Amino acid sequence: DWVWEPWHKQTEEYLQQYEKICFVNDKKKFNRQDYTVIEYDDSLIYRKRISACLESINPDDVVMFQHEDMFLYNKPQHSVLEEFSGLVSRDKVHAIKMCRVGDNLEKSNIHPFLYKNPKQYPFTIQPTIIKAGVLKKIFDKTPGDTIWSFESNCSKITDLKSYCCFNPQDKKRG
User: SS3 for the chain, per residue?
Assistant: First the structure.
């Protein structure tokens, strides 16, 4: 909860028009009326916590999955977010990471800002546009007792049409 102040500031500034759902271990500590709050059992391992929360979301809903320490630092291009959501909704792609993953990526023919994720990174714990049902399958089928072992095991996912987003004209960060 120490990171919630900048998280809320950024979501209020940049994502006002979107529904927000937050998975928390204690609803009483999360006093926001503008969020749907889903409480998880803190005794569960990471991937089972997320999977249990995803049961409350329509599997066909397109979501942006992100953790509280990965908030926006600039205004998003909402029209591009809508285009990406449409691609996911129509099953043209399964997942779109909202940041670049690696170098020398293969450009997609789907959208000018999309590049194929490297095979070893089909899914990572980074802001990702994805259907809730696809996300739940990833969390249900990928082994790992911790967030780090889970993410490492995601490299074994082979059936995910996974892309990352970046504009080659944008300044490289990180």
Answer: CCCHHHHHHHHHHHCCCCCCEEEECCHHHCCCCCCEEEECCCCCCHHHHHHHHHCCCCCCCEEEECCCCCCCCCCCCHHHHHHHHHHHHCCCCCEEECCCCCCCCCECCCCCCEEECCCCCCCCCCCEEEEHHHHHHHHHHCCCCCHHHHHHHHHHCCCCCEEEECCCCCCCCC
User: For every one of its 174 residues, what pLDDT tens digit does the chain have, with 9 covering 90 and above?
Assistant: 678 788 888 888 888 889 999 999 988 888 788 889 999 999 999 999 999 999 999 999 999 998 877 777 778 888 999 999 999 999 999 999 988 777 778 899 999 999 998 888 889 888 999 999 999 999 999 999 999 999 999 988 888 999 998 876 666 655
Enter the pTM of the model: 0.91
Measured CA to CA in angstroms, residue 31 lies from 35, 36, 163 at distances of 9, 11, 35
Residues 6+ apart with CB under 8 A from 83: 111
Residues 6+ away with beta carbon under 8 Å from 101: 117, 118, 121, 124, 126, 164
- Report the distance separating Cα 103 and Cα 79, nearest Å: 26
